[in-house]
Specification:
The protein is α+β, with helices and mostly antiparallel strands. It contains 8 helices and 15 strands.
Length: 346
């Protein structure tokens, strides 16, 4: 006898097998990634900088050629600027300084001619770091910071070539640079004088006219009422800059009266800033000065951290940090409650 398979049975078997394969390979559960997350709880306010500053003056006529950059450290009696007859002489002096800096870098690079004495791993790491800085600053439009990345990148690439023997002779390049320096020096003329630093500190080329108004003599005067009527002092024609000369300086922040109650004199706090070189500052509460109406207060913090950016800053956004949290961030729709406990399936 013979048997014939039922068409309906065969179709059912195929459907059943297909369902089993689908169930085994396709999950009915939706998933999503949790991401690391840092949360800061604090008071957002504006910090007003109060510090010891001395104005630098000059009455000599001519074109100033600064020997220090804005925000750069300078020692007492150090040269802040030279005074030239005209703009062309000052421009020549700037070019000469750039060429001398190039010569200095070449001489440093020439010292990297022994491959056994050079850690190529470190050199390659620095090349990558400078390159990444260049790409990052370019993407954010920070074009004023690109030159340092390019200079560092070219220097490290050349050092690698010297260390591996690909490039060893810089004599023609040095001769060309020295020739340019000689030509520029002949056309620079003599300086009419120079300006010296009266004290050591950070040089700032701009005067904002708050130097005589915001002083460190008496911190009790800095109330909300004081800042509501704050006016600048008079600008002086002979001022060419100033020097921030004390490393202890102050930040005054206006906050609601209820927020001021959380802080005690002598307490150490962390301040979050928008400054690239100092994104976080450790400060100490010096005073809490109330307004006449009692609605708000000024917290005066002291700080001893200093940088070129801080030296040139008068005010900026500040967050007075209360608490900080770190963890994983998940969407609220992923939360489930099991036996009274809230969590997520992982």
């Amino acid at each position: 006898s013979s048997s014939v398979n039922s068409p309906s049975l065969t179709i059912s078997s195929v459907i059943f097998l297909s369902f089993q394969i689908y169930s085994a390979t396709v999950s009915s559960i939706s998933t999503e990634s949790a991401i690391p997350y840092d949360y800061t709880e604090g008071i957002d306010t504006t910090g007003i900088i109060i510090r010891d500053e001395t104005l630098v003056k000059s009455t000599t006529e001519g074109t100033l050629h600064f020997a220090v950059s804005d925000g750069e450290k300078i020692a007492k009696d150090g040269t802040i600027a030279h005074i030239y007859d005209g703009d062309s002489a000052s421009a020549n002096a700037t070019k000469i300084a750039e060429l001398k800096n190039q010569l200095k870098k070449i001489e440093e690079i020439e010292g990297y001619n022994n491959i056994s004495a050079v850690d190529l791993g470190t050199v390659n790491a620095k090349i990558s770091s400078y390159y990444n800085d260049f790409v990052y600053n370019t993407s954010l439009g920070r074009f004023d910071e690109i030159s340092d990345s390019v200079s560092g990148l070219l220097t490290m690439m050349t050092r690698k070539k010297v260390a591996t023997g690909e490039q060893t002779d810089f004599s023609s390049l040095k001769e060309s640079i020295n020739s340019q320096i000689s030509t520029l020096s002949q056309n620079s003329g003599n300086t009419k004088g120079s300006i010296k630093a009266p004290v050591s500190g950070y040089f700032v080329s701009a005067e904002d006219s708050y130097e005589s108004v915001l002083t460190t003599e008496d911190m009790s005067i800095y109330t909300p009422d004081f800042f509501s009527g704050l006016e600048t002092g008079e600008k002086q024609a002979d001022v060419i800059g100033k020097i921030v000369y004390d490393y202890k300086w102050y930040i005054a922040c206006i906050v609601p009266i209820n927020d001021s109650k959380f802080y005690k004199i002598g307490e150490s706090v962390t301040l979050k800033t928008t400054i690239a070189s100092n994104p976080r500052l450790t400060a100490t509460v010096e005073r809490v000065n109330l307004s006449s109406s009692g609605d708000n207060a000024v917290i005066v913090f002291s700080c001893s951290e200093m940088s070129s950016e801080l030296a040139t800053m008068r005010q900026g956004a500040i967050t007075i940090i209360k608490n900080e949290y770190s963890g994983l961030k998940v969407s609220s729709k992923a939360l489930r409650v099991v036996d009274g406990q809230t969590g997520v399936y992982i």
